[in-house]
From TrEMBL:
One of its GO terms (molecular function) is ATP binding. The keyword Glycosyltransferase does not apply. SUPFAM superfamilies: P-loop containing nucleoside triphosphate hydrolases. PROSITE patterns: ABC_TRANSPORTER_2. Gene3D superfamilies: P-loop containing nucleotide triphosphate hydrolases (3.40.50.300). Residues 3-227 form the ABC transporter domain. Keywords: ATP-binding, Nucleotide-binding, Transport. It comes from Oceanobacillus picturae. InterPro entries: AAA+_ATPase, ABC_transporter-like_ATP-bd, P-loop_NTPase. CDD domains: ABC_DR_subfamily_A. This is ABC transporter ATP-binding protein YxlF. The keyword Disulfide bond does not apply. Pfam families: ABC_tran.
Length: 294
């Protein structure tokens, strides 16, 4: 088992922030963690890495208790750039990690080239831009070639070129068997990384595979919308209206073929049927309409 979180609860004073979280990850993959500000994403990651004490529940990473310090030879956590030391250089940070984890310092050159931060490696971090700090944080969490990588907003401050590079590095890590849990506000990038998303809402976790949602939602364009609506209502077949002439249908108890047959039997011409892709942003809007920003 790569990750096993059972009934995790976390309180701040009297407020229950995490409400019985359960996560089981048995095979390497990329999973996105998405939710509004204040929904508990960072709190969850901090609990998983033992930076916060949990009130109830258990956490195991790679088959060990999350409190086992030896675990962090194989687990990395990309946090906010406030963990960086302004008076140290990027090289100092990477050298320290190599010394602490008994990693050959030749890895520094390799990871610096991979991330693309060679031109400012020897500069003090207080002179780094936000994007440069994100590059350093990425280098720090991949230098030990982790089996499990947790990431809190890794795309903050990155220009498009750097964001693409970050994405490619994460996909390469996934290819070689690294499990990645990434919290991000960038829903477009989430769509490019994974179809598996844990949506966090009010301290609870909703796991969804967008691949499954892609398969059963359709927009059907018909010649006579009014007649189609009348027929579907009479038959009790669920639908919604997308725009004039277009019906939105989701397979559940009624199959797409039954939906089509109903229209055909009533001489309603079907102009087109389009399988709808449900991206992270679209699903987010459905779940959190009217709530705080992501």
């Amino acid at each position: 088992m790569i990750v096993n979180v059972e009934n995790l609860k976390k309180r701040y004073k009297k407020q229950l922030v995490l409400k019985g979280i359960n996560i089981k990850i048995e095979s390497p993959q990329i999973i996105a963690l998405v939710g509004p500000n204040g929904s508990g994403k960072t709190t969850l990651l901090n609990c998983m890495t033992n930076l916060l004490t949990v009130n109830e529940g258990s956490i195991e990473l790679l088959g060990k208790s999350h409190k086992d310090s030896s675990l962090f030879y194989d687990v990395s956590y990309l946090q906010d750039n406030r963990i960086l030391y302004g008076d140290l250089t990027g090289y100092d940070h990477l050298k320290f990690i190599c010394q602490a984890q008994h990693i050959d310092q030749s890895k520094i050159k390799e990871v610096v080239e991979r991330v693309g931060m060679g031109s400012y490696l020897k500069k003090r971090v207080r002179n780094y831009s936000l994007g440069m700090k994100q590059h350093l944080l990425l280098a720090m969490v991949i230098i030990n070639e982790p089996k499990l990588l947790l990431m809190d907003e890794p795309l903050n401050g990155l220009d498009p070129t750097s964001a693409i590079n970050m994405r490619n590095i994460l996909l390469e890590l996934a290819e070689i068997g690294t499990t990645i849990i990434v919290s991000s506000h960038n829903l477009d990038e989430i769509d490019r990384l994974t179809n598996t998303i844990y949506f966090m809402k009010d301290g609870a976790l909703l796991k969804e595979s967008l691949t499954d949602l892609h398969l059963n939602q359709y927009e059907v364009s018909v010649s006579n919308t009014d007649k189609a609506v009348e027929v579907l209502n009479a038959k009790g077949i669920p639908y919604s209206l997308a725009e004039k002439g277009v019906l939105r249908f989701e397979e559940s108890d009624v199959s797409l073929q039954q939906f089509i047959d109903c229209l055909n039997e009533n001489q309603i011409e079907i102009i087109s049927i389009e399988n709808q892709k449900v991206g992270a942003e679209k699903r987010y809007r459905e779940l959190f309409e009217g709530e705080a920003s992501v």
